[in-house]
Design a protein that fits this description.
With 287 residues, the chain is α/β, with parallel strands linked by helices. It has 11 helices and 10 strands. The chain has a domain of 152 residues: P-loop containing nucleotide triphosphate hydrolases (Rossmann fold). It binds adenosine-5'-triphosphate (ATP). The site of adenosine-5'-triphosphate (ATP) has 14 residues, from β2 and α1. InterPro entries: AAA+_ATPase, ABC_Ni/Peptide_Import, ABC_transporter-like_ATP-bd, ABC_transporter-like_CS, Oligopep_ABC_C, P-loop_NTPase.
Length: 287
């Protein structure tokens, strides 16, 4: 096994009026270069887990047990819970980057795309000269399928899909080894969503990063994930490769989750892996 991320017995509570056990004893490994889907109904703890991995949890959340270990491809391990201050800031973006659902709305409306992308390099790669920085930003935009002349644009001049692509470019800027994506395409229409998903799977093959992809949309996960973890009430109740989970689900909750998506009862198109953009009949019905 070649894990890039090992989550060991992780437990997280929200110390609100009543204590919520949002994540309970979760153990999970993310293999180098794989797409791991995390599925489960609203409130089961998916985002809490994502925020814990990226060390973005805020009070009243508290990690009550366990740890998250990052194993760099250079051969050293980092215990994420032990990182603080500058080390933590350097680690985030550099080794683990994230794209959240509302990410496209977090672009600064008064700054051009170029300035916002360049900022990542100014902060994390200060040794890069201005010309190299510009060139790198252009390359990044093209990587995610946006023309480099859009660097001059302001966010409002781009569509939602393009803005989300810019956020993905930003997340990939420092060539992270892990990408955490929490509902990254949920706010977009189905066609744009699919184009972006295909881009993510292509980039993962090209650049070799691993992805934790979080969504309540199980059909989508079945298409893009290598393995899928099903979460319920803070627990991982089933974890298997996508095909086995789909054809031979073991846990009653997984079975229920699968049967709650009518589109899964028909033939699923494997648009993402095959690269076919056309929607199949099942998709048309789902629309
Ligand atoms: N700030 C908070 N204070 C108290 N409880 C919280 C807080 N944030 C989340 N929770 C609770 O923690 C549990 C897990 O929430 P979380 O947002 O991680 O679930 P989720 O699976 O990501 O849901 P969704 O798909 O709706 O985003 C839920 O019961 C939720 O109500």
């Amino acid at each position: 096994m070649n894990a890039v991320l090992s989550i060991e017995d992780l437990s997280i509570d929200y110390l609100a009026e009543t204590t919520v056990h949002a994540v309970r004893d979760v153990s999970l490994t993310l293999e180098r270069g794989e797409i791991l889907g995390l599925a489960g109904e609203s409130g089961c703890g998916k985002s809490t887990l994502a925020y814990a991995i990226t060390r973005l949890l805020k009070p009243p959340a508290r990690i009550t047990g366990g740890r998250v270990l990052f194993s760099s491809r250079e051969g050293y391990d980092i215990d994420l819970s032990a990182l603080t201050g500058d080390d933590l800031r350097a680690f985030r973006w550099d080794k683990i980057a994230m794209v959240f659902q509302g990410a496209m709305n977090s672009l600064n409306p008064v700054l051009r795309i170029s300035e916002q992308l360049e900022d990542v390099f100014i902060t994390h790669r200060p040794e890069l000269g201005k010309a190299d920085r510009r060139e790198r930003c252009g390359e990044l935009l093209e990587l995610v399928g946006v023309d480099r002349d859009r660097l001059r644009a302001y966010p409002h001049e781009l569509s939602g899909g393009m803005r989300q692509r810019v956020m993905i470019a930003m997340a990939l800027a420092l060539e992270p080894q892990v990408l955490i994506m929490d509902e990254p395409t949920t706010a977009l229409d189905v066609v744009v969503q699919r184009e972006i998903l295909r881009e993510i799977t292509r980039l993962r093959s090209e650049l070799g990063f691993a992805v934790v992809f979080i969504t309540h949309d199980l059909p989508l996960l079945l298409e893009i994930s290598d393995r899928i973890a099903v979460m319920r009430a803070g627990l991982i109740v089933e974890l298997d490769d996508a095909l086995t989970l789909y054809t031979k689900p073991k846990h009653p909750y997984t079975k229920r989750l699968l049967s709650s998506f009518p589109s899964l009862t028909g033939e699923r198109g494997s648009f993402v892996r095959s690269g076919e953009l056309a929607l199949d009949e099942t998709d048309q019905e789902a629309l």
